[in-house]
């Protein structure tokens, strides 16, 4: 049971392990939102979707005994919330940002209300794959216990990038997002495409939420998300609407989140509030470096309300 | 502060108080059907702080003639003033337990001034002279139970390194951190401890990360002072570490690693206090207690705890109960090498100096500022 202290090696290990452990919800939410935003709509309500996904996934896992059914249920609940967002936004003169904020509050409130009976019980968690079997160091073994959802997310990023670039559906989504008039002329309905794109975004966000309650930290409570859904939406802009960049951004964010505790554990205990804020400082710094007056927000879908 | 439209009830109560009716004793006749309100900052089922109070409320509910109203997830903002006002004016509560630290000042003190006939019992607050007489503050010396947990941890650790997941460096938390290590060092003075602060009372993801960091640095017994120890205990269990609980019994969360824990004993105290009030007695404004006064208890030992550890832990508990044992006594140095308690000085648990503790004792790695 006793493990040798790792000392300073613990910091890169913690950051690496944290990147794997913490990044999955960011990854799923941001990949889903990439598709939604590529279709020309922004769904800020994904924080609410994430929390609803966490709650419903946990509840279904508790009732059925199968965490995978919980993941599926979380995805379905998420896509229903996405459909609600898309449905309201289909009405004339509706602002998608305002609807998103309303759904954010609605989703979290509903999850807290319906989730009260599930705070105490313990639901079966998702299994992990022990990839650290080759190492004798217990810390590495623990760090390399990786959840399947992480691999699905990692695989989804290039898949989505490819699909958006090379398939008919991807082209349709991009066209609707870049120029709704042109899409309409081609015979596509922008509202229908956006409905499906927002449903997909909601599905992914729901699955991301179920990772929180069913794997890490692995139980349902109200403080579970603490803004991860909002951060993930911001990550999409940070990642310039590119799925592969979402993957790197999510890993970076997860790793940076582990930096604060890891530094305290090796004795850098002054200013831990600052280190705990590392992910946000990092985002700001990269945004400032990446932004230039000449090529602001390159890659933004033309129909997106925040860039239009 | 919210304006409450005066209801008939509040006008009548206010008038009665103005007429000089005795605040507590005068209600003897109506005491039989008393309504008690409980307000929690988090969820009632959090396996932690809020659950400990909710279990106390459940014990009160079983008493004859008593109605209990509860509200959970009330933030430490004007929301708690609204919750208290609602319980007094709509539910007719005459005794309130606003249980979270931040409710005390200004919300509860203001409410107590406005409703002199209602008794307010606050957990963790510091009632001072000049505060309303119907406001009360109570807290327990739970560091005694943490010290007992530390003894068990000291027997169980193989790496001689303990881990502590703490929320914020405030005196109550620092006192528990120090007590845990001092308990362990009473078994083996070479034991050290790593403390990591999360920065807030309830941050599930960061608490899990912190627990993993402590495990990576070789800590093999973990305890915590956060509002809901659930995530810490579960994460440590997954890493195969021993744990000591806090606030309530978390043994069901960690059947393999749960050694013991420091628990509140509100299920005993709340009914006792209310019985005293109903009998016409009055309540002190400043209430404190430890093992001796049954404010706290230890979780039952896990099966893996050996007899030697149990014997030493039981002896310490007996010392606390008898009132002849002190945790903080000189000579005591902090982790920067300064002497914080001079040789020959023994600080009794009741000593108010301890309620402003600002240091970590020698052997703790971490910073109190």
UniProtKB/TrEMBL annotation, chain A:
Pfam families: BPD_transp_2. The keyword Cytoplasm does not apply. The chain crosses the membrane at residues 6-32, 69-91, 98-120, 140-164, 195-217, 223-239, 246-266, 272-291. It is a multi-pass membrane protein. It comes from the Bacteria. GO terms for molecular function: transmembrane transporter activity. This is ABC transporter permease. It comes from Acidisoma cellulosilyticum.
Automatic annotation (TrEMBL), chain B:
PROSITE patterns: TAT. One of its GO terms (cellular component) is plasma membrane. Pfam families: Bmp. It comes from the Bacteria. Gene3D superfamilies: 3.40.50.2300. Keywords: Signal. CDD domains: PBP1_BMP-like (cd19963). Residues 35-281 form the ABC transporter substrate-binding protein PnrA-like domain. This is BMP family ABC transporter substrate-binding protein. It comes from Acidisoma cellulosilyticum. The lineage of its organism: Bacteria, Pseudomonadati, Pseudomonadota, Alphaproteobacteria, Acetobacterales.
